[in-house]
Amino acid sequence: MKRQSPLQIWFVDDLHANLAAWLGSFEPELRSRHQFRCFASVETLFEALDAGELPDVLFIDYYIGPRFGHEVIAYFKGWQQRPVLVAHSSMPEANQVMLNQGADLMLEKTPGTAVTASIMALIRSEADLYQLAGF
To answer: What is the pTM of this model?
Structure first.
């Protein structure tokens, strides 16, 4: 069933270049129809979550300043309804750690590129985005 309201797609990563590449990996039409939000720290992400905001999909880097992606995964332990958690590190071992902790899937990040090939391969259309979000 297709949801009528825009999807909330979030990403937490402390490096601006990674945030820009992540956002640039989604087609302009998707960016105009849905809400994409970037967080540069675990603390600002947790502030939004604690205030009752909740994404449909959350992309999570592993090294986030002094914090780690597995801390974000742990935040959602025991939730009945939570976002789709996407481990999104450039290190396969870090992605595996987040999968082991409860992430739903992993997509490799390639630092230093303008876009992320793994995202572009998985999400080519709005239907792909809704499928990823579980709708």
So the answer is: 0.94
